[in-house]
Amino acid sequence: MSAGAPRLLVISPNWIGDAVMAQPLLQLLRRQHPDSPIDVLAPGWVAPVWRAMQEVDTVIEAPFRHGALQLRERWAFARQLRKRAYGAAYVLPNTLKFALIPWLAGIPKRVGYRGEMRYGLLNVVHRDERKPKRPMVSFYAALASAPVAVAPPPGALPRPALSASAAQQAYALEQAGLDASRPLLVFAPGAEFGSAKRWPAVHFAELANTVLEKLPDMQIALLGSGKDRPVCDEIVALAPAVHNLAGSTSLDQAIALIAASRAVVSNDSGLLHIASALNRAIVALYGPTDPAHAPPFSDVAQSLWLHLECSPCRKRECPLGHHNCMRQMSADMVWQPLQAMLRNPPAS
């Protein structure tokens, strides 16, 4: 990279899955500005995702409290950013407080979507006013170009891509107490957005017992945050042979474990999109959300969705109280595509 090329700043969304789906934006920026280092300003809980992207030069962890304006702190932080001589900033969150930072830092080109009270703070303003909304990959990738009415579809864009080295994978397996010589299957039973996205614990347990009966050499690890620990405990109570790692691994370690796995079964969550960007075989479970909006992009992937009349409702909790979009998706329905993935794994 040329020492004289201006740096680019990308301001991260707050959700892990959104950060992953923004990765094609970085691939496009790298093509357009091959000599410009790309920095990412991200919350601490999302930073490991950006560190797994080859296009990122520096990850700067945001020192702000979630949801707080902290205007004085943002002004002081922006003065520090000014010293890095950014030529452009790409503001991925739609909030006022994040659009303030590049404006206060004097970054000449400030790109983002029209959001809350951001006029003047951004000077390249995109809009997404059509129904249905743009798929997430298209939503973020569109920021690499001039505003357009219709964004390129996901199939016309680079796929999200993360990486974890062999050494990182080996270390994560050792730390988790897993056997590197045995195949690994990862379950991601959590969903930060709300319980409506969660496939029932009893179904995960039934699937785990089926896998271990048919493929006894398989290891099954449950990944998630500390908030997912109670759901994972329910699974372990019904399938004691699985390894409950929810809340006991860092996100860096979770990324490495997913990279080391043969396949992943996941709700529509951040870990699903990490698995997709690592090109793992995936069975993705959708209920209240539409798989077309944020699908997996792996070479081998199966999205399951029951197409019920009430879905996609996009609600955090089932508004009808029955949760049929997930409950009626049986363990056998998941086992059918999963067994082929486990018995005939794709090349790494």
UniProtKB/TrEMBL annotation:
InterPro entries: Glyco_trans_9, LPS_LOS_Heptosyltrfase, RfaF. Its EC number is 2.4.99.24. Keywords: Glycosyltransferase, Transferase. It catalyses: an L-alpha-D-Hep-(1->5)-[alpha-Kdo-(2->4)]-alpha-Kdo-(2->6)-lipid A + ADP-L-glycero-beta-D-manno-heptose = an L-alpha-D-Hep-(1->3)-L-alpha-D-Hep-(1->5)-[alpha-Kdo-(2->4)]-alpha-Kdo-(2->6)-lipid A + ADP + H(+). It holds the Pfam family Glyco_transf_9. It comes from the Bacteria. Belongs to the glycosyltransferase 9 family. This is lipopolysaccharide heptosyltransferase II.
